[in-house]
Amino acid sequence: VQDLVFNLHMILTDTVKMKEHQHDPEMLMDLMYRIAKGYQTSPDLRLTWLQNMAVKHSERGSHAEAAHCLVHSAALVAEYLNMLEDCRYLPIGCVTFQVSAGLCNFLQRAGGVCSVGRHPVPEEEGICAGKYFSEAGLVGLLEQAASSFNMAAMYEAINEVYKILLPVHEANRDFKRLAVSMASFRMPSTRCTTRWVTFSSPW
Fold this sequence. Notes:
Elements: H1 2-20, H2 25-38, H3 43-59, H4 63-84, H5 94-98, H6 101-108, H7 135-151, H8 155-171, H9 175-200
């Protein structure tokens, strides 16, 4: 109980500080991150704060940081979907993101954003009730992350995102979205190859 009270006090304190630092973008994002991290026992609120951070980063043109937040959001949703049911085509919770070389660093920088040890069971009333805690919500977050990575010219990370997306579209036989995803997957791969050839060329 003491830890819970202390955590709530820190969240409220940081929320108040946000008004004081509303003209200091860096401090504001630090506070939002701390608040998101503080909601380890409330995945819905944690996801809301991560998405708020993504919006703020996008508004500032910090697309890599926005993608960072969206990857965390997607991994959090994947973790809960994995707890609810076992679908072979869906990511195996955060594990899928952590084994990806292109996405692992994003999760490591989160300070345990996907830890589920203290999270409540998803079946509990009111838990994971938001629209993003669904297969469609997961797909939407991953597509947003890919778009942000693209604007940040982080093409290797885009490929990793689509490696998670493609099996979902294949399982649902959503050929239209699958075609779009395949085209989007191919484009960054081509850009990576072009960039590698340019950097490695002696001329």
